[in-house]
């Protein structure tokens, strides 16, 4: 890390001195903004597409009248299509990022993501182009999912490799801050337009506006991503000639165990995340007889509260370690899921709020640390690819199916506690890998994930 | 009344961590209050809160120990740094050290008699040729070489001199060393020089 005697410290494109841990704070901030913007665009699209009013509009505009199934169901099918494409995106973009560099791949993914969301906003409906409308929409959703598969892994890797070792938790929390902000922006914008416009205007042209806003958001992210150099860690690995010849093969051959542990932890993350974001609004409407606007407002409010605590929790993890927060979340879901849904059944505003707060509060414990935890599970040469593959397989299988699975089971069993049982099972499954993974707070990212990784310094986790 | 040593240790520990213990007590109270709720909700919440309090105290104690170790290391390094700076200052100020005083106490070995010869060179290594009976004064071999056949009269062979194992080379003293009146007599107290007037 230190320059050799007589040698000047390496300089990055914008004059960043990369000696030892003295990475320029402004370069770190740019990297954080660049990474978080991509996540923001991804979840902006999700917030827009999964908003109640939008699912019914999209399911109507792009399909013939009298088509089989409800409009909402057709929209959910399109959401599921994006999830199906994610693992392939992870397998394509991840190893590419390990070979060519994080910056180039992230520039490509944000262009694809924001561009495909924009295209949905300008696509003609079924009445204009007929059967091509749903097919084009499906194609666009697949491209969205494919690009999203490479986005999160790269964004988290970029932040983890840029951040100073002793503040990786704090800066990593910005990634999920982008997630929450993007969802609130998307869902909030749809809600505002729905309240401001008449039903007819919203159905005719109003629904396109939120999709089209994704493009300028993406362009901002692209601009910032092109203004930074690739991560110092990747550059050092490249100069030392330690790049893997075949990152995909290396990943699947040597790190499949760690990928399985990642899948286990992300199982709980996705079940909790998508339960809160996609299932809970419809749960409140369909099973607890709340109106749509109230359900959306409660979701947005809980997410706003999560935004307020996520950065301090990330900073806390730099002091006490990542694992205490993850273990607390897992045990919390095991013991408190049932009481949370029991509180929601009380039909009182306080009960619903408390129940929601429990689910959201435990989720934010995980969200605050995953941006720093997951990249540190793998060594630099396969980090992007291994993380992208594991994360997106778990998201595709467990995240995309939560709403459909839980809704079907509630209908089949008649029990409103199905989401609680699913969360408890997910907590039990995730607890084992959470305990098994090494603590990485305070461990330099260049050595994290390797066999001879040092013990964490300065954290009370051990 | 004397406080037992163990109790005193515990009290000291509690005083050091009174803030963390205060938070634990507050959480225990919250857990107790939670038990007032219906059992389906209250008991799991109470259990979670108590578990969180225990886990938090454990993390706090570990972190405190790590910080105390780190501070002790820093103190040791500062102490060592201070001692090195003091020594550096003393040496740099030109104060003669004890070792230097001892060096000056050694008697200087006079070297003037070795430089009296016509070929004396201060840079050359002087040989103690006056101690050798014969042979090349430049040789380093201490043992005397075989005597030259033409010039050196044969002398009865002294078994001691021919012994190759002999390591000491003692000068052969002239017979009249102790007799007075020798030409080379030095004017010493034992052999007063005769006056040349006579």
TrEMBL record, chain B:
<feature type="region of interest" description="Disordered">
    <location>
        <begin position="133"/>
        <end position="198"/>
    </location>
</feature>
<keyword id="KW-0472">Membrane</keyword>
<feature type="compositionally biased region" description="Acidic residues">
    <location>
        <begin position="176"/>
        <end position="187"/>
    </location>
</feature>
<feature type="transmembrane region" description="Helical">
    <location>
        <begin position="43"/>
        <end position="61"/>
    </location>
</feature>
<keyword id="KW-1133">Transmembrane helix</keyword>
<protein>
    <submittedName>
        <fullName>Uncharacterized protein</fullName>
    </submittedName>
</protein>
<feature type="transmembrane region" description="Helical">
    <location>
        <begin position="18"/>
        <end position="37"/>
    </location>
</feature>
<feature type="compositionally biased region" description="Acidic residues">
    <location>
        <begin position="148"/>
        <end position="161"/>
    </location>
</feature>
<keyword id="KW-0812">Transmembrane</keyword>
């Amino acid at each position: 890390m230190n320059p050799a005697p007589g040698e000047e410290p390496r300089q990055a494109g914008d004059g960043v001195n990369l000696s030892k841990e003295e990475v320029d704070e402004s370069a770190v901030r740019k990297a954080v903004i660049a990474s978080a913007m991509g996540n923001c665009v991804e979840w902006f699209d999700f917030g827009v597409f999964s908003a109640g009013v939008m699912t019914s509009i999209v399911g109507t505009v792009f399909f013939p009248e009298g088509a089989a199934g409800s409009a909402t169901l057709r929209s959910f099918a399109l959401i599921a299509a994006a999830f199906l494409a994610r693992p392939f995106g992870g397998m394509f973009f991840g190893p590419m990022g390990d070979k060519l560099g994080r910056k180039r791949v992230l520039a490509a993914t944000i262009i694809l993501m924001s561009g495909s969301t924009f295209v949905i906003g300008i696509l003609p409906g079924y009445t204009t182009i007929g059967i091509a409308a749903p097919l084009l929409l499906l194609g666009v959703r697949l491209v969205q999912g494919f690009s999203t598969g490479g986005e999160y892994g790269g964004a988290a890797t970029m932040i983890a490799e840029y951040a100073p070792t002793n503040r990786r938790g704090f800066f990593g929390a910005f990634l999920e801050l982008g997630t929450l902000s993007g969802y609130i922006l998307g869902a909030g914008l749809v809600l505002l337009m729905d309240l401001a416009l008449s039903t007819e205007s919203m159905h005719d042209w109003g629904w396109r506006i939120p999709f089209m806003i994704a493009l300028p958001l993406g362009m901002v992210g692209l601009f910032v991503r092109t203004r930074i150099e690739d991560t110092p860690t990747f550059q050092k690995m490249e100069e030392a000639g330690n790049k893997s010849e075949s990152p995909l093969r290396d990943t699947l051959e040597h790190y499949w165990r760690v990928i399985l542990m990642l899948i286990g932890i992300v199982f709980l993350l996705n079940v909790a995340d998508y339960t809160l974001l996609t299932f809970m609004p419809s749960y409140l409407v369909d099973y607890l007889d709340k109106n749509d606007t109230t359900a959306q407002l409660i979701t947005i409010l809980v997410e706003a509260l999560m935004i307020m605590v996520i950065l301090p929790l990330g900073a806390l993890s730099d002091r006490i370690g990542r694992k205490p927060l993850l273990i607390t979340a897992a045990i919390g879901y095991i013991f408190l899921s049932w009481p949370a849904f029991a509180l929601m059944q009380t039909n009182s505003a306080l009960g619903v709020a408390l129940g929601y707060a429990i689910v959201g509060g435990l989720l934010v414990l995980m969200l605050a640390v995953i941006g720093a935890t997951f990249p540190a599970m793998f060594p630099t040469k396969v980090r992007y690819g291994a993380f992208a593959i594991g994360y997106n397989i778990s998201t595709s299988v467990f995240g995309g199916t939560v709403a459909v699975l839980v809704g079907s089971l509630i209908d089949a069993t008649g029990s409103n506690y199905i989401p609680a049982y699913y969360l408890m099972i997910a907590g039990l499954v995730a607890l084992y890998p959470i305990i098994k993974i090494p603590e990485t707070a305070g461990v330099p990212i260049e050595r994290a994930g390797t066999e001879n990784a040092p013990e964490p310094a300065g954290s009370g986790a051990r | 009344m004397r406080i037992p040593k163990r109790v005193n240790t515990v009290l000291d520990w509690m005083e050091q961590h009174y803030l963390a213990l205060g938070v634990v007590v507050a959480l225990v109270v919250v857990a107790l209050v939670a038990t007032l709720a219906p059992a389906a909700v209250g008991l799991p919440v109470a259990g979670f809160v108590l578990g969180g309090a225990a886990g938090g105290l454990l993390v706090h104690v570990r972190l405190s120990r790590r910080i105390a170790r780190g501070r002790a290391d820093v103190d040791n390094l500062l102490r060592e740094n201070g001692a090195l700076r003091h020594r550096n200052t003393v040496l740099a100020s030109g104060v003669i050290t004890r070792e230097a005083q001892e060096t000056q106490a050694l008697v200087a070995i006079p070297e003037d008699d070795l430089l009296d010869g016509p070929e004396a060179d201060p840079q050359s290594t002087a040989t103690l040729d006056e101690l050798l009976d014969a042979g090349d004064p430049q040789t380093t071999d201490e043992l005397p070489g075989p005597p030259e056949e033409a010039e050196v009269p044969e002398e009865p062979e002294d078994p001691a001199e021919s012994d190759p194992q002999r390591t000491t080379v003692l000068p052969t003293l002239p017979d009249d060393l102790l007799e007075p009146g020798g030409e080379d007599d030095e004017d010493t107290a034992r052999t007063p020089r005769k006056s040349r007037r006579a």
